[in-house]
């Protein structure tokens, strides 16, 4: 079993400001690292609902099955936001791909190990990364890689993909990674040529951005007074959505942005857990009705 090390753990727990008898939701259970620490801070009256779209996460949640304070439901953030009961004292979304997904070649998330080109977080859905790579028009594939991967060589990558699939269907992560490599100039690269393409396909396959932008305001609305939303993102597209959503909510409702700048891993965590290096954490707090945000703080009206 792949060891799961939760990112920004201390910042997450501080951001949630956990009440021992509070009601919390971990919307991205993953390996359960964050959930385990939240449970350790709850008394017998506290409750934690954990959710995840991945069947492997559901299996891992079994270790808490005897804990009356804990419950698990399988589903996407978007679906579960509609079902979570209010008021919440806090919720956590740790966005992106978990280490247990990245380290399993059969899931097809990583270009470092060869495996089927899959990338589905929920394997009940039909469309895989291989379907997109082999069936999209060249222009549409290039636009997807540019939009979600922000790769300036997206058109060259799409051309290499189309040339390769004319010979035979692209089915593995290694085959796609080779297409990306051929599209890049033959020189040293700061990151692997496949990095942004794999990110773009993963986002598209799992509808990751809509899984943040659509439900986030609805989830925040379920916070009770003093309740906090803690969101961890791993790339600029997700972080931008969270930042703008929090700003809009704080400008128009009884909400306070706790983190004026996103929290990031310190040197020790970044060294010990490389997955944390790109993580950014933002916190929003629900204030009493009548509270209005001002440039130098907040006040009641």
SSE topology sketch:
Blueprint lengths: L8 H8 L6 E4 L6 H7 L7 E6 L2 H6 L9 E5 L2 H7 L4 E7 L4 H4 L26 H7 L2 H12 L4 H12 L7 H11 L11 H12 L3 H4 L2 H5 L2 E11 L2 H17 L2 E3 L9 H6 L7 E7 L4 E4 L2 E4 L1
Parallel strand pairs: 1-2, 1-4, 2-3, 4-5
Antiparallel strand pairs: 5-7, 6-7, 8-9
Helix pairs in contact: 7-8, 7-10, 8-9
What do you see in this structure?
There is one protein chain. The chain has 301 residues and is α/β, with parallel strands linked by helices. It has two domains: 9-96 and 209-300, Vaccinia Virus protein VP39 (Rossmann fold, 3-Layer(aba) Sandwich), CATH 3.40.50; 104-206, DNA polymerase, domain 1 (Orthogonal Bundle). Helix content is 39%, strand content 17%. It contains 14 helices and nine strands. It has helices spanning 9-16, 33-39, 55-60, 77-83, 99-102, 129-135, 138-149, 154-165, 173-183, 195-206, 210-213, 216-220, 236-252, 267-272; strands at residues 23-26, 47-52, 70-74, 88-94, 223-233, 255-257, 280-286, 291-294, 297-300. It has a seven-stranded mixed beta sheet with strand order 3-2-1-4-5-7-6, with helices on both faces. The radius of gyration is 20 Å and the shape is globular. The model has no long low-confidence stretch (mean pLDDT 94).
């Amino acid at each position: 079993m792949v060891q799961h090390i939760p990112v920004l753990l201390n910042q997450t727990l501080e951001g949630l400001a956990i009440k021992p008898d509070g009601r919390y939701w971990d919307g991205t259970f993953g390996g359960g690292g964050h959930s385990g620490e939240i449970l350790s801070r709850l008394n017998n009256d506290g409750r934690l609902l954990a959710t995840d779209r991945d069947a492997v996460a559901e299996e891992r949640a079994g270790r808490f099955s005897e804990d009356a304070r804990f419950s698990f439901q399988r589903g996407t953030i978007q679906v579960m936001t509609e079902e979570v009961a209010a008021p919440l004292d806090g919720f956590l979304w740790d966005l992106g791909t978990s280490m247990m997904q990245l380290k399993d070649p059969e899931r097809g998330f990583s270009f470092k190990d060869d495996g089927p080109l899959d990338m589905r977080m929920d394997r009940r859905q039909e469309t895989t990364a291989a379907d997109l790579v082999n069936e999209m028009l060249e222009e549409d594939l290039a636009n997807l890689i540019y939009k979600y991967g922000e790769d300036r060589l997206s058109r060259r990558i799409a051309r290499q993909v189309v040339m390769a699939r004319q010979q035979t269907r692209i089915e593995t992560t290694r085959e796609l990674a080779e297409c990306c490599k051929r599209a890049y100039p033959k020189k040293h690269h700061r990151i692997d040529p496949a990095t942004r393409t794999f990110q773009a396909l993963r986002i598209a396959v799992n509808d990751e951005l809509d899984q943040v932008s659509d439900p986030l305001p609805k989830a925040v609305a379920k916070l009770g007074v003093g309740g906090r939303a803690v969101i961890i993102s791993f790339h600029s597209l997700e972080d931008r959505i969270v930042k703008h959503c929090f700003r809009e909510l704080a400008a128009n409702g009884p909400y306070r942005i706790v983190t004026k700048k996103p929290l990031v891993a310190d040197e020790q965590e970044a060294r010990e857990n490389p997955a944390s290096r790109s993580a950014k954490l933002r916190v929003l707090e629900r204030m009493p009705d009548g509270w209005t945000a001002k440039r130098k703080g907040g006040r009641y009206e």
